[in-house]
Design goal:
This protein has a domain of 88 residues: Rieske Iron-sulfur Protein, CATH 2.102.10.10. It is globular. It has a 4-stranded antiparallel sheet with strand order 4-5-6-7, with no helix packed on it. The chain starts with 9 loop residues before the first helix and ends in a 19-residue tail after the last strand. It is α+β, with helices and mostly antiparallel strands and 143 residues long. Helix content is 26%, strand content 20%. The chain contains 3 helices and 7 strands; from the N terminus they run αααβββββββ.
């Protein structure tokens, strides 16, 4: 038999390029971060980090402490009322890493989503939902 080599014509090449482009777009639009932030970092680590921040006085009234190593933020909306949230924004997995100095709201600097520091609810921006509450049964208390 003769030597048979595959022939790639323009139509086959364009179809393959179309499939690759479609898969790239689908992968880019797929939902990331569907798992709970607590699955990436042990809830006990979050509690310990939150308790340490509170005990060290790192959470001002009307402010927040950002615990980057455990992907969490501890807020104190009113004196003695501590809340712990994931710092991962559900819009594009950006990190909530700023407190608006005028309002005390939490801000995702990636696309500007704004969150209520007392509830984690989204107040503005592209995030489809609020921040996940973490360690709700063990609210940190100052030492």
């Amino acid at each position: 038999m003769g030597d048979v080599s595959p022939v790639v014509n323009r139509r086959v090449l364009l179809k393959a390029a179309g499939v690759v482009a479609t898969l790239t777009v689908v992968a880019g639009c797929s939902s990331r971060g569907e798992s709970s932030p607590a699955t990436e970092v042990d809830i006990e680590q979050i509690r310990a980090a939150a308790d340490a921040a509170v005990a060290a006085g790192e959470v001002p009234v009307g402010g927040a402490a950002f615990l980057e190593d455990v992907k969490a933020v501890v807020t104190q909306p009113t004196a003695g009322d501590y809340k712990v949230f994931s710092d991962v924004c559900h819009h594009a997995n950006g990190r909530v890493s700023r407190v608006d100095p005028d309002t005390g709201d939490l801000v995702c600097v990636l696309h500007g989503s704004v969150f209520d520091p007392a509830t984690g609810a989204v107040k503005a921006g592209p995030s489809p939902r609020g921040l996940d509450s973490l360690a709700p049964t063990a609210t940190p208390s100052p030492a």
